[in-house]
Amino acid sequence: MIEIRELVPRDVDALAACVRRCYGSSYSLSDFYDLDWLRSQLATGRLLSVGACVGQRIVGHIGVSVVSPGDPVGDTVAGIVEPSFRGQGLVRQMGEVLFSAFTQRGIVATRHIATGAHLRTQRPLAESGAVETGVLLGHLPASTDYHGVGRSFGGARIGAVVFFQSHGDIGILDVHVAPRYHDAIGAIYRRAGLVRRIIESVPPQSRAGSARAVASINVRSDSHAGVSTIGFSAEPDHRLSTERLDAVLTGNVDVEYVDVPLCHVDGPQIVEWLRCRSFAFGSLLPGTASTERLRMQRVSATTRPDLIQFATPEGRRLRNWIVADLSSREPRR
Q1: What is the pLDDT of residue 330?
Q2: Which among 70, 71, 79, 185 is least surrounded, fewest beta carbons within 10 Å?
Q3: Which residues contact 10 (CB under 8 A, 6 or more apart)?
Q4: Furthest CA-CA distance within the chain
Q5: In the predicted model, is pLDDT for residue 13 greater than 50?
């Protein structure tokens, strides 16, 4: 008999064993092989985790990661089911228990990054009302081994589809969007049911407060996945500095992301600067005033966007638009 329940710190050994039975050592979220990290995340409430359990064995898992307890928007992680237990609707069953758990904790919206190698994760998301907000063309390593799931990406990195799902009100925001992306991002907001006011950007040379403090930058590198993610930790009165960003861009990883805060007046300037360095649109990442971001992507490794699977026609249309944006990038300087 399969029991669907929330996991606790003492379950981490069984959870890591489940990941290995699903992916061997190739799972892109390398933290899920780190038992101490898993225990810490579960104990502090930064990871809400639901497992499908057969006795002491975990045969499926889905979780939500939050930046800090109390954050109303979370990121789903590790939606997996062992090969011999697939086809029983466990993802939907675990999702229902997880939904109950995070709503009790005040989480009203979730972001999802679902593999494009198959539709086992995407279908339940689309059927439950989640909408595509981006396509990350090379998010997963080519070496990712989906046990029991055939794929045809060959030696290319594997694309992923980003979804957003709202379960409550996350409020109205003013956002600053580069003019080239006004229409596309406005359409995504409408599909997601989010009320956002895209306001006219102020030219950098006309802004007051040029001596403002400069925002700090966070860099998260995962050598296992070949991905580096750069983000600004910015107060509204802090300046987003292209000079400081330039100092941390490496170009030495397969995939580099820069998450640009959409509620910051300097955001459009940063986006245009990134396009001149071979970045293109990756995804809208809805959130709160401090976490709503536009993810720009630069992929150095081989990708096959044409092989990404999509649960809906809208996902394909978004992929096609992103590929077109990639091909129209400004020459690298």
Answers
A1: 58
A2: 70
A3: none
A4: 66
A5: yes
DSSP-based three-state secondary structure for 28: coil
- Kindly list the domain boundaries of the chain, sorted by start residue: 3-166, 173-307
* pLDDT beyond 50 at 318: yes
Mean pLDDT of all residues belonging to the chain: 90
Provide the β-strand partners of residue 232. 217
Options 3.30.70, 3.10.450, 1.10.287, 3.40.630; CATH for 173-307 is: 3.40.630
State the DSSP code for 56.
T
Question: How far is residue 11 from each of residues 3, 52, 276, measured CA to CA in Å?
Answer: 14, 12, 47
> What kind of fold does domain 3-166 have according to CATH?
Aminopeptidase (3.40.630)
Count of other CB atoms within 10 angstroms of residue 174 = 12
The pair of structure tokens assigned to 295 is 């993810």
Q: Say if CB 135 and CB 321 are below 8 A apart.
A: no
Of the chain, the end-to-end C-alpha distance in Å amounts to 60
Contacts of 44 (CB under 8 A, 6+ apart): 69
Burial label, 218 (beta-carbon count in 10 A; 0-12, 13-18, 19+): exposed
